[in-house]
Amino acid sequence: NNRRRKLCLEEPMFILGNGEVYRNQTEVKMSQIVLPCHANYCGELSAGQLLKWMDSTACLSAERHAGCSCITASVDDIHFETTIGVGQVVNITAKVNRAFTSSMEVGVLVSCEDLFSDRHWKVCHAFATFVARRTEAGKVQLKQVIPRTQAEQMEYSLAAERRRMRLIHAEIINDLLSSCSSQTGDECLDYQEAVPAERTRVESVELVLPPHANHQVSTFGGQIMAWMENVATISASRLCNAHPTLRSIDMFHFRGPSHIGDRLVLKAIVNNAFKKSMEVGVCAEAYQGGEPLRHINTAFMTFEVLDNDRKPCTLPRIRPEPVDGKRRFQEAIARKKIRLDRKYIISCKQSEVPLSVPWDPSNQMYLSYNNVSALKMLAARTNWVLTSEKKKVSLYTLEENQMLCFKVETHVAVAAEQVFLLLSDLRRRKAWDHHYQYVKLITDSHEDDTIYQVVTPSVTKGGKVQDFILLASRRRPCDSGDPYMIALRSVTLPAYPPTEDYNRGEVLCAGFSIWEEENSFTKISYYNQATPGVLPYISTDIAGLSSSFYCTFASCSAFLEENKDSLASLPTSTL
């Protein structure tokens, strides 16, 4: 198999803390030099060809872990940061981040290498979900991934949160599209210079031949993506009469398989043109003989047209066709907002996320994801330094990238689920934490997400008290070895602006990680990425001038043990 021969299967080595040499057995690497046959009209690697290489590498990584054939189920958002020219080398690395019952998440990193200047740069990264195919023995039960390095532990933990978002993605997107479409006015006016959307419509048929199939005689998922990218590019070109560049692909799912002998019908049309970008919708359907069409996949791709300085050009307006065209036009506006929310909240580095992000129903899923993911990333750090310890309550600090974080750790003789339920409702926290003077529940935005207003004492004598608007996101364990999580971060709400009565404080990342240990014994770790609004409350403890942290968490332990049998009295929203 040509694809297998091109793979570099030598895994990178890591030296663990105990001196053990470690190689990730699921990691697969592919390196390809970009030849003219791989390039488009601009002398750049076609995005379709890159998608084929990415899917091939990810599939082989999944199969190394599963020990059997695997198929692509879905691919998360992909944002292409740069293009790749002829003569440059594409390096693709894929490895399994986490396995669930019969599916697994594979992380894919694409970088580019210039052989003459020895420069390396990132092109994109993606997360794909693969499903192990049934064997003659029945459904495959995948073995668990055991993370060994800090980076693997972080991705393993975040994979559970990404999976949760995938499972509810379609439902939330449909709700948002319905809401946004009903609120969108008649923005598709009959502009004089507008290009009729019908002019951008493309339909193409491909016959699936053996070279297009993978080693399971099903149509190669990367090949379908490449065909879809091809018709989308033609559609985008018809709008702008220029060569467009693919910038991003929204999350999509393969809804059914395709096989050798299928005729694949690919349809594309420009849904909307914004000032500097356009959205193209693509649909793939399959049939054999006189069979009805089977829906294989739908994707939404964002294109730009770049000038000689690689800057996006202004695009012509689009005039949608009546009824379905106007619906697609308005839904594209809604998806653009969703896309910006995802990029603004999820894709950027944690250090680039602002302290307070405006909350609204359209971005609540992404804020919740960011909230829990930030806490999981903080918890996965291994370079914590023990600062002080008193009666089995330990205070750790971590100083990194000019940011100070702290962790308080203790154990209680209470079941982990009871600890989770008791700590989930912030209104009960004032019973053990003297910093929480007043707590008001603002809204239950979701069964796992609640927004509170918290009032804390003044940090200076005679000064104003502080208030925080906090999003609390709760997660039960995904697997038996996972902790319960309660993540906290600041958000802004129009109904609760800063007032003269309070100094508005902000929390970037805080929360509890609750681990179940044997015999109803539970380890509680509290984390906080200290911001100017939080640091004054803990600075004397970190400096060793006080041990108030011990008193607070001793009080927490007493509260948990006193209330472990009072779950029936908890508010319904918490239970």
UniProtKB/TrEMBL annotation:
Phosphoprotein is among the record's keywords: yes
Residue span(s) of domain HotDog ACOT-type: 24-136, 198-309
Keyword Cytoplasm: yes
Intracellular or extracellular location(s): Cytoplasm; Mitochondrion matrix
Cross-referenced InterPro entries: Cytosol_ACT, HOTDOG_ACOT, HotDog_dom_sf, START-like_dom_sf, START_lipid-bd_dom, Thioestr_dom
Signal peptide stretch: none
A GO BP entry: acyl-CoA metabolic process
Physiological role: Has an acyl-CoA thioesterase activity with a preference for the long chain fatty acyl-CoA thioesters hexadecanoyl-CoA/palmitoyl-CoA and tetradecanoyl-CoA/myristoyl-CoA which are the main substrates in the mitochondrial beta-oxidation pathway.
Protein name: Acyl-coenzyme A thioesterase 11
Annotated organism of origin: Sinocyclocheilus grahami
Chain's gene name: acot11b
